[in-house]
Amino acid sequence: NAGVTQTPKFQVLKTGQSMTLQCAQDMNHEYMSWYRQDPGMGLRLIHYSVGAGITDQGEVPNGYNVSRSTTEDFPLRLLSAAPSQTSVYFCASSYSGSPTSYEQYFGPGTRLTVT
Amino acid sequence: TQLLEQSPQFLSIQEGENLTVYCNSSSVFSSLQWYRQEPGEGPVLLVTVVTGGEVKKLKRLTFQFGDARKDSSLHITAAQPGDTGLYLCAGRGGTSYGKLTFGQGTILTVHP
């Protein structure tokens, strides 16, 4: 199993440009999430999905869109990039079913710089 | 909004020393997870604690969940350079999805 994969690894955008960060998992996990990581702030949830066709907002959703048409894929769209969106983005998947569930399996991350 | 305060933010120690990282909140969590992250990679789960007062050991790492399920600690005995990394705690609330609240992280550097 490849686990959770993310592309691209690095990206530089100009202010106002749009782009899509790709995320895929091959573990048949129900739940998928997008986080951003900024220095001294841990990980903050952007959007999440509890299954194909179902998405919801997390803590910091503004400026981002998501959709989930399949169990495997959960792309994150930046509509009009801003310098405040410079960050490292992580996709994660998890599954339910026990008290120790919802443990996150993270991808390797995408480092995004907006100039 | 549930918050997790993690301390210390930075820790620089010599090989062989012991250390403790704390994760505190005023909120009750149904479970708490600890992750370790190396530069350029995503976080990797170390352990999940579920029951108040629970203690779990992973080789030289000891994890404890507070009796009231509001706090947790990570203790490393005889730290080694391979322990260097960012340590993150994450608490799960009681919602059906169980969205995680992450602490700010502790950057640990162990010098040979």
Distance between the termini of chain B: 41 Å
What percent strand of chain A? over 45%
Q: Biggest β-sheet of chain B, characterized?
A: 6 strands, mixed
Distance between the termini of chain A: 36 Å
Which bin fits the share of residues in helices of chain A? under 10%
**Assembly state (oligomeric):** heterodimer
Shape of chain B: globular
Q: How many runs of DSSP E, i.e. beta strands of chain B?
A: 11
Order of helices and strands of chain A: EEEEEEEEEEE
Strand content of chain B: over 45%
Global morphology of chain A: globular
Tally of individual helices of chain A: 0
Descriptive report:
The complex is a heterodimer of chains A (115) and B (112). The N and C termini of chain A lie far apart (36 Å). In chain A, 0% of the residues lie in helices and 49% in strands. The radius of gyration of chain A is 14 Å and the shape is globular. Chain A contains no helices and eleven strands. Chain B is mainly beta. Helices cover 0% and strands 53% of the residues of chain B. Chain B is globular, with a radius of gyration of 14 Å. The termini of chain B are far apart. In chain B, 37% of the residues are buried. At the A-B interface, strand 5 and strand 10 of A face strand 4, strand 5 and strand 9 of B.
